[in-house]
Amino acid sequence: MLNWPNLVSQFFNGLALGAVLALISSGLTIIYGTLGVLNLAHGAMFMLGGYAGYVVWAATGSFLLAVLGGSIFVGVVGLFIELVVIRRFYGRPPEDQILVTFGIGIVIVELVRLAFGSLSVTVPTPPILSGVMHLGFLFYPTYRIAVLVIAVLALGVLYIILYRTRLGLIVRAGIEDSGMVSILGINVYRVFLLVFGIGAMAAGFAGIIHAPVVAPTPDVGATILVETFVVVVIGGIGSFPGAVLGGLISGEILSLTSAIDPAYSEVMLFVVMTLVLMLRPEGLLGVRGRA
């Protein structure tokens, strides 16, 4: 039954989900915007983050260490993949890049399935963040509020990196014209390595903080990858603010539509994406140079 408390609760659910989607999408969009590589392994990185966090939590019992250790692990995996595989495909046709990243995603998923099986793993909510919070007009799970806050803080860190550091300046210049950046004498391959690692770490971090909300399974990355691509299309390819805006819009669409009929939540998401492509093909805050 749809009533005012349920609607407000779904609105907060949409904010939390949207912030997580924005965090994942920001990694995907800066990778594509800077490197020109459509990373189909990005969903697998999200899934890998959840499992890496689970391993660290099982070994230490600390959720904080799980977040730190899992994020670093996925970041290192991203660096390794860029250095060993992706770097050899920068000059290749886009379809080759799509196929190789798709293959990498399958390998990661099957390795996780080999190690943990096909069943989900459980990452418990930190005791300090368990229970519910009284917001004055409804009771709401404390951890979901924490997820929203954590994701916003992480997006703030990414914003500082992209807009307040020399690396961010180079990344944004590379989104506009990577050839010119190379001509200026900047080691673009070193920048590409860091960008891919940061993008992978963002996805892994999102996977860990989302694990207590939805238990990770080996196949969870496939669903999140589709939603992430929709976010990037709505917000605009290569645009960090677009990823944030697209994530929040997509989260609210999925959540509010689910309150009415869950079967149509993803349908509505694709309807909105189609309208954006028809009316503004580069996305709401898209970068025309890369789109």
Describe the protein.
By secondary structure, the chain is mostly helical. The protein has one domain. Helix content is 73%, strand content 2%. The chain has ten helices and two strands. A two-stranded antiparallel sheet has the order 1-2. The longest helix has 32 residues. The model has no long low-confidence stretch (mean pLDDT 87).
Summary of the model, kept short:
With 291 residues, the chain is mainly alpha-helical.
Can you tag this structure with a few keywords?
291 residues, 10 helices, two-stranded antiparallel sheet, mainly alpha
| Approximate helicity band | over 70%
Tell me the structural class. Answer: mainly alpha
Task: Compute the separation of the termini in Å.
Answer: 42 Å
What Rg do the Cα atoms give?
19 Å
What kind of sheet is the major sheet? Answer: 2 strands, antiparallel
Average pLDDT metric: 87
Q: Please state how the strands of the largest beta sheet are arranged side by side.
A: 1-2
What are the segments in which pLDDT stays under 50 over at least 5 consecutive residues? none
The helix count comes to: 10
Total discrete domains: 1
Give the overall silhouette. Answer: globular
Number of strands: 2
H/E series? HHHHEEHHHHHH
User: How much of the residues is beta strand, in percent?
Assistant: under 5%
